[in-house]
Design a protein that fits this description.
Layout (H helix, E strand, L loop, with lengths): L1 E16 L2 E22 L9 E27 L4 E29 L2 E2 L3 E3 L6 E25 L2 E26 L6 E3 L13 E2 L12 E18 L2 E18 L13 E17 L4 E12 L3 H4 L3 E3 L4 E3 L7 E12 L6 E12 L2 E6 L10 E6 L2 E15 L2 E22 L2 E9 L7 E11 L4 E10 L2 E6 L6 E3 L2 E12 L2 E8 L6 E5 L19 E6 L4 E8 L2
């Protein structure tokens, strides 16, 4: 695999006077990726059979991605009581895969002796070429107005404002399958062909596969407004308000199937949410605070998640869910804060969250159609409850600092699962953590900061506990990611306008391990499996360390 990254930043600002200021920010990044992948699966011979059958697959893929964003911001102060700020933003993200070629060969060995590899041309073509490109465009505008006054001698700050966001996506997908229309339908490597580029084949599907749900347009339009009041009454600060949001999400399948019964209707979801919030801050002294808050928030599905597409990935089939709903979250927090020194702090708090219709990824069957296949797809599975505690600590000893934080989360959602009971499949309820939610998350950093001599360094260690990678529809069959410890290091030295820096990531060569919390004796003979551990290893990935050395110069 070869990657090439390019980035460009540009910024301009203009100060009309002390009360009016404009700022223009731009960023452009590009990633080109060329990949060649060869996968070999030797297979297993059946008992009493000397022939062992397997497969080899090849993939050649080129990907080009770019992101451009531009924002123009203005800040205006009209008098001591009235001010305003606004932002106009544009963002464009595009991804092109002009060629993605996949080829699959059969392998055989007889009594351990390799036989010539071959490719078959049957109902499931073993040679495919795929073309993909998509474009996401985001236009948004924000306006905030602030007015300061007094009420019963207490200072009051009134904020009102709103936003409008227009997001659109265009997605194109087409795939052709290559095969041999006339006999022979079996070609041997080294005899019938020696190089993939020399194979003269026919197109199995001359019209391609563009008439499927992956060629679509999608949109997300959001209009919102808010009112906020900020009051100080002695040692008590109260910030409260309400936000109203109207959301219009939808998709349109651009190339429908010529078969009427297979055509997919366009979909849309329009809803309005009223989201209140209230925050209290009480000063116990100059360096201590108590905080309490309640607010309601939402988690919208991505518009790609709602498109009823279907695609075969490396390990599983993936599918969108047009019935996906937004999640509505009620949040309650309490926190104690201590600031003994300007750069030191200690915080401890507790929290509670009620999440209606959380969005989780699971292996499930579609709610429509007669397919019995399992798909990896997003869904809503009920109401979840999270509660826990968090701790944050920062302390400096001259130039050396320690920063630590820890969060414990008890996450619970109860969903129906399929179980094999008394030789019959039945539905039972099982409680589990939310998808992606770890019970324990901790971070520890050692800091060194010497402003006078231009040194800045940090060594950070983070721990993330076990968490569910995807939810299974079967009892005790959820796929988990093993908890992991990761270490990173960075250091920089400034010389007036010149800065030299070094960044090192994944110092411990942390592995990504996925497993099922069930052991099975049938796996005892397979490599890396230990049924006595009560776990079944599913996937293990190694990434190695990454080092970045750079020079920055300010003109």
């Amino acid at each position: 695999e070869e990657q090439m990254r390019t980035g460009l930043l540009a910024k301009a600002d203009y100060q009309f006077d002390k009360n009016n200021h404009l700022e223009w920010n731009n960023i452009f990044v590009n990633l080109k990726n060329i990949q060649y992948r060869h996968t070999s699966s030797p297979g297993f011979a059946q008992t009493g059979n000397s022939i062992q059958q397997g497969s080899e697959s090849f993939r050649m893929r080129y990907t080009d991605q770019l992101i451009y964003s531009s924002s123009l911001q203005g800040k205006h102060r009209f008098n001591d009581s009235f001010s305003a700020d606004w932002t106009g933003a544009f963002a464009l993200a595009q991804k092109f895969t002009p060629d993605n070629t996949s080829i699959s060969l059969h392998t055989e060995s007889n009594n351990g002796v390799p036989q010539p590899e071959y490719i078959t041309f049957g109902n499931d073509p073993a040679f495919s070429r795929r073309w993909e490109h998509n474009s996401d465009q985001d236009l948004s505008g924000y306006l905030n107005l602030k007015y300061i006054t007094t009420f019963w001698k207490a200072p009051i700050e009134i904020n009102v404002g709103g936003l409008y966001r227009n997001k659109n996506r265009d997605n194109f997908y087409n795939e052709y399958y290559m095969w041999k229309e006339t006999p022979p339908h079996v070609w041997y490597l080294g005899t019938d062909f020696t190089d993939f580029s020399l194979m003269k084949l026919d197109v199995f599907n001359p019209q391609g596969s563009s008439s499927n749900p992956l060629t679509y347009g999608a949109h997300e339009y959001i209009g919102a407004g808010y009112l906020e009041l900020n009051a100080n009454i002695g040692q008590l600060q109260i910030v409260g308000g309400v936000r109203a949001e109207n959301t219009d999400q939808g998709y349109k399948i651009k190339y429908q199937s010529p078969i009427a019964s297979l055509r997919i209707p366009d979909g849309s979801s329009i809803y309005t949410d009223i989201l209140p919030s209230i925050n209290f801050k009480y000063k116990l002294g100059k360096v201590q605070n108590l905080r309490a808050s309640y607010f309601r928030s939402i988690n919208r599905p991505g518009y790609f998640e709602m498109v009823p597409y279907s695609i075969v990935n490396d390990i599983y089939q993936e599918k969108g869910n047009p019935d996906l709903k937004r999640a509505i979250i009620d949040n309650i927090d309490f926190r104690y804060e201590l600031f003994p020194q300007p750069e030191d702090q200690a915080m401890i708090g507790v929290f509670y969250k009620k999440i209606k219709d959380p969005i989780e990824y699971a292996m499930m069957r579609p709610t429509t159609g007669s397919s019995l296949d399992l798909f990896y797809m997003p869904g809503n599975f009920g109401t979840a409850y999270n509660y826990g505690a968090e701790f944050d600590f920062v302390k400096y000893f001259h130039s050396i600092g320690i920063k630590a934080n820890y969060t414990y989360t008890n996450s619970s959602i109860t969903t129906p699962k399929t179980a094999w009971v008394n030789e019959v499949f039945t539905q039972v309820n099982q409680s589990r953590p939310l998808y992606g939610q770890s019970a324990h998350v901790a971070n520890l950093s050692l800091l060194y900061k010497d402003v006078k001599h231009g040194w800045n360094a940090q060594f950070a260690v983070s721990y993330t506990g076990d968490r569910i990678s995807y939810v299974s529809q079967y009892l005790n069959n959820d796929l988990w990611q093993k908890g992991f410890l990761q270490g990173d290091f960075s250091i920089e030295k400034r010389f007036k306008k010149l800065t030299i820096y070094l960044k090192a990531n994944n110092l411990f060569n942390t592995k990504m391990i996925e497993f099922i919390k069930l052991g099975d004796n049938i796996n005892a003979g397979f490599p890396m499996q230990n049924p006595k551990s009560g776990e079944t290893l599913i996937n293990q990935e190694f990434y190695g360390q990454t080092f970045l050395l750079g020079i920055r110069y300010k003109f």
